[in-house]
Amino acid sequence: MVKAAGATFEPRKTPVQRRSGESVDAILEATIQVLLSVGKEQLTTTRVAQRAGVSVGTLYQYFPNKTALLRECLVRHMDGVRNSVGKMCEEHKGAGLLEMGTTLVFAYLGAKMRDPKESAALYSVSSDIEGAALSHAASERARSMVAEMFATAKEGLTKDPETVATMVLASLNGVARRLLEIKSPERHLEPMREELLALVHAYLRTCAASPLE
């Protein structure tokens, strides 16, 4: 794990009891709420603790500073996207390439844009909380899952599954980033998703070893 000198980004401890888990969930939800209401610069551990209904001491049992709070929120967001993609990949092994491409686009953008304001807020602070390193690790895991799915396509592939997964995910990442950078991304989601589907389908047609249905 990459760490900046003199900074602690990791949670202090992992909750092992249900009550502890509920406290951490409340703290992280409060972190998002405070981030959305006052922004990163005005976000403090005191404000987060007050919003979560816990003492600052309880918060510090799990998170040493606001950077650790924001980092864990970003990790959970990325885990949600990865889990959504992973579930979709497992369910569609052996399917046709176009079906795989369609469901991947919907699963990925659906997870990324589940809460556009939250996603945009986390994206805006990611450069300050090891976002690049976290994103790289998450992307590698997603690429592996998607490549495994594409390798089972019923039409077969003329290209390396890792390459196909890399190109498709790069397209998805680019569109998701653009959506998070513009105002009212929910208004642009559907038309951009349709364009993305056209792009992904066109590329996958060049990868099929036999005609697509």
Name some characteristics of this structure:
mainly alpha; disordered N terminus; elongated; 213 residues; 9 helices
Would you kindly provide a brief summary of this structure?
The chain is mainly alpha-helical and 213 residues long.
Task: Describe the SSE topology.
Blueprint: H1 18-38, H2 45-52, H3 56-62, H4 66-91, H5 97-112, H6 116-125, H7 131-150, H8 161-181, H9 185-205
Helix pairs in contact: 1-2, 1-4, 2-3, 4-5, 4-6, 4-7, 5-9, 7-8, 8-9
Low-confidence sequence ranges: 1-8
Rounded to the nearest angstrom, the distance between the terminal CA atoms is 44 Å
Mean pLDDT: 88
The outline comes out as: elongated
Largest sheet: none
Assembly state of the chains shown:
single chain
Encode the helix/strand succession as letters.
HHHHHHHHH
Helix segment tally: 9
Name the helicity range.
over 70%
Strand content: under 5%
